[in-house]
From TrEMBL:
It holds the Pfam family Succ_CoA_lig. The keyword Ligase applies. This is acetate--CoA ligase (ADP-forming). GO terms for molecular function: acetate-CoA ligase (ADP-forming) activity; ATP binding. Its EC number is 6.2.1.13. Residues 4-98 form the CoA-binding domain. It comes from Pyrococcus abyssi (strain GE5 / Orsay). Keywords: ATP-binding, Ligase, Nucleotide-binding. InterPro entries: Acyl-CoA_Synth/Transferase, CoA-bd, Ligase_CoA_dom, NAD(P)-bd_dom_sf, Succ_CoA_lig_flav_dom, Succinyl-CoA_synth-like. It catalyses: acetate + ATP + CoA = acetyl-CoA + ADP + phosphate.
Amino acid sequence: MDYFFYPKSVAIFGSFREGAIAREILRNIVEGGFEGKIIPVNPKGGTVEVAGRRFEIRKRLEEEVDVSIVVIPAKLVPGLIRELKGLTKGAVVISAGFSEVGNVDLEEELIKAAKEAGIRIIGPNCAGIFGVHGKFFGSFEVRVNPGGLALISQSGAFGGAALAMGNEENVGFSAFVSYGNAADLDESDFLRYFADDENTKVIALYIEGVKDGRKFFEALKYATSKKPVIILKAGKSESGAKAAQSHTGSLAGSYEIYKAVFKQGNAIEVEEMEELFDAAKAFEMYQSAGSRVAVITNSGGPGVLATDKLEKLGLEIARLSEETVAKLREFLPPQCSTRNPIDLIADADYERYRRTIEVVCQDENVDSLLVICVPPIFIPSEEIARAIIEAKCNKPIIVNFMAGELVKKGVELLNAHGIKNFPTPERAAKALYWLSKRKNQG
């Protein structure tokens, strides 16, 4: 499916008047820096100018392209797909008005046309796709920064909100696909594809329901054998399941069955959007982590909150060796706590943080570190960020800098070095929990 996510050429079918979806997708592709050939198509012809580039609108497609994006009235889609035989490998059908509104026959006609033409279909009733490392933004959703997360979303609107939230959370993406009604290609096909995609480090999946349970289970097992898969399932309650069915025409089914499938398939199931990104951030940094955690903080309260959450999640508060405690006492002020959680007190500076991280990291009873910083106004947060970046430690470090403007520069510095911040002690603890689940599966 590289032709979808790393295309060399694209055709866009639709209206290119101001405000039309096809025009916005064209703009996104141009502004996103796509380096391949771009062909707008509309029977009326004419020209269109977006982002400082002028395009001739072709009346029909007469040359081969890797992918076609279709934004025309639903009833015209099957006919267009027949015309594209031999001209395109894949079509992303944005158009709505198929099985999700009860128009099952039209959707069946679309798939029949696609099979006869040898064209794979994403959609219909979808928000499009991104191949971020291919600089291909074939959607009207907000563009994102390159990174390791592939987001597969049954809902276009959820996908759009998730992309915007991912930007706020400093998450980098490898790809995004909104697959709508899944008339042809579905979540299972994308799980397998991204499992083998070298730019994807972690896969996140938002689903309401799947049509082929066995196919999904096999694809999930294959994907999780290669990389972490995070799942957010909607339609868990009876009312939610009914809403999901009317939304994308999917069969939501019993949540208990899905839950069992996720568990047996070694997926990481999360409860809400915020958790989806926290898990993605953790897995973009580390493949897994052991369950024995050392907490290093300059503030007692957040250290206790982190400790409570870790224990509630079933992780261990690491028991530091006597040798480690003795080494810490050599340089820490006497009022610091050298038992886990390690409290460096409010005036902890670069040196105190860096040395503590390095000493604790060498303890064989410690699998991972949770480092908390609530900086006083006289110590810049970037100083502590630098201590974390420069500390010699080969174990997973999860960071919680609090809060807002006070830590903005420190968080930016961490992010520039590939270290993601978790805004609360509880969210940082949960990140370590997900990493430990992956370790246990391994």
